[in-house]
Amino acid sequence: MKTLIHACCAPCLLAPAQALRDEGLELAARFYNPNIHPLLEFRKRVKAVRVFMEFDPLPMTIDEEYGLDLFIARIYDPVPARRCENCYAVRLGAAAAFARANGFDAFTTTLLGSPHQDHDLIRSVGERAVDEAGVAFLYRDFRPLHERSLDMAKRRRLYRQSYCGCICSEYERFRNTTRELYRGSTAASRGAGDA
Fold first, then answer.
1. Spatial distance between the Cα atoms of 77 and 86, rounded to a whole number of angstroms
2. Dmax of the chain from CA atoms?
């Protein structure tokens, strides 16, 4: 079966891609993530996908257009649950449409591998995308492969992000940290008053 896997990032693609190929599926990937912010984070993830392509022969399409406008217009919602649902719908809808336009029998997503994502919501949104595009949604629970993917990414020295991707998830991830705040130094404080 010719299957497209939506890739949210390079590390999350590693073990699921291997597992799907082990099933005998004809696999290709597409990186499409207009939710990722800020721009430098987006570029790091695109670069990691390009590095992935250097050691894995998996055919992949990379959408390198930065998605700030789309995020604001179609994904962002002040209610977190709706924001995530909108984000899944945009990305999985695009995966389903791409799969149909390029002759794939089915599509799936690496989002199903993250223990931090709403698995049931992803499945529901994926199944809704089937109705719109007419391509089957291949459901797999990739969460048991999560640690293996991370280990593979470490061995390959792939960039591993520390938050989902959107600006809201970045805030949620780091809002209670103070590790990077400037504390000043006693010497610098004393010198400032002497000038």
1. 8
2. 74
Q: Tell whether the model's pLDDT for residue 164 goes beyond 80.
A: no
Find the DSSP H helices in the chain.
10-22, 39-55, 68-70, 80-101, 119-133, 146-155, 167-174, 186-194
Domain of residue 66, residue span: 2-194
Q: How many domains does the chain have?
A: 1
3-state secondary structure of 56: coil
Structure token pair of residue 191: 């010198």
Using pLDDT thresholds of 50, 70 and 90, give the confidence band for residue 185.
low
Task: Indicate which CATH number applies to the domain containing 178.
Answer: 3.40.50.620
Please tell me the distance from the alpha carbon of residue 77 to that of residue 95, in angstroms, as a whole number: 22
Q: What is the pTM (predicted TM-score) of this model?
A: 0.85
